[in-house]
TrEMBL record:
UniProt keyword Magnesium, yes or no: no
Alphabetized Pfam families for the sequence: DUF389
InterPro entries: DUF389 (IPR005240)
Record keywords, A-Z: Membrane, Transmembrane, Transmembrane helix
Taxonomic superkingdom: Bacteria
Name under which the protein is recorded: Membrane protein
Amino acid sequence: MDFNNYPPKQKFLNSRARRFIRIKTIRFLKQFLPKQVKDVYIKKLHRELWLDASWNTNFIVFTISACLIATFGLISNSTAVIIGAMLIAPLMLPLRAMAFAALEGDFPLFRKGLFSIIGATIMAFLLSNIAGHLVDLPEFGSEVLARTQPNLVDLAIAVVAGGISAFAKVRKGVSDAVAGTAIAVALMPPLCVVGLSSSQEQYYFSKGAFLLYLTNLLGITLSCMIVFILAGYTKISHALGWTLALTSILVLPLGASFFQLVRQAQLTTEITNKLINETITVGEGVNNSHIEVDWTQDPPIVYITLQTDKDINSKQAALVETFISRKMGQPFELVFIVDKVIRIPTDNNVLPK
C-alpha cells in the first residue's frame, strides 16, 4: 500500500495511528519485562531470607517432625500421612535463600542456606535410616517405589513448585503455606526413601530416590532464580547459567527414565492383550482378570489375578510363561493368583410347597 498517494490529512492520520499502535505495543510488552524493585524492598527480602536460612530451633524441630511423619507414612504406605509431612516444608526456606544469594553473589547468605540444607539432609537421612533398621520391612509399598524412578515429569513438578514458592515470597497477599506444601511434596519424601531403602541395603532404590532429590533441589532453585529475576529483585548472573547447566545434565537420565516408563506401559498393555486374546488359560472361561508387571525385578514378574472355576496347574503356567517370553523377545516370570469360583446350582425340589 502506497501512503504517498494519500492526501496530506490522511497521511497525518495514518502516521498518528501507526505511532499510537507502536506505543501501545511497547507498553504492553514492558509489562512482562523485569522492573527494578526499590532498594528498600530488596533489603527487606534479604532480611527475611537471612532469617529463613537460619539453622535454629524452629528449623530443626520442623525438619525432625517432617522427616518422622514422612518416614512413618512411607512405612505404612499411607498417602494421607505423607501429606501431613508436606504441610511443614522445612527445606523450602534455606533453598529459596540460596537461590537469591547465588544471583546476588552474597556468599554469607549462600553459605548460611547451604549449611541448613546439608544439615537437614543429613538429619533426615539418619532418622529415616534408623527407622528403617528398627522396623525392618521385608518389602516396601507403592509410596516408596513411586519415588525410586524419577523422570522428566518430576523435574517439571519441581520447577513449578519452586516457581510457586518464590512467587509467594515476593508477592503480597499470598500465603507461604501454599508454596511450602508444594515444595515439601518434592523434597522430604524422596529423602526419607533414601534412608529407608539404604537401611535394607536396597541401593538401587536409594540411587533412584537420591536422583529424585537432586532433581527437585536443582529444579526448585532454578525456578526460584527465574522468578526473582522477573520480579525485579535481582539481575541475571553466571549463577543462573551454572544452575541451568547442572539441571540440563540431569535431563539425560531423567529423559531415559521417562521413555523407559512409557515403553514399560506399552509392553504391559501388549502383554495384557496377548494373554487375554491369544491364550486359553487366561482368555477363556475367566470371569475377571487383572494383570500387573513388576519391572523392578530381573526378569520382570507378571502377576496375573484370575477369577475362574478352572483348575490351572503348573504345566499350564509354564507354557504361558514360555509363550509370553517368546512373543515379547525377553524373559518374564509369571505368577498366577487364582480366585476360585464355585458355581452352586439351586435345587427346586427342596423348596417347600
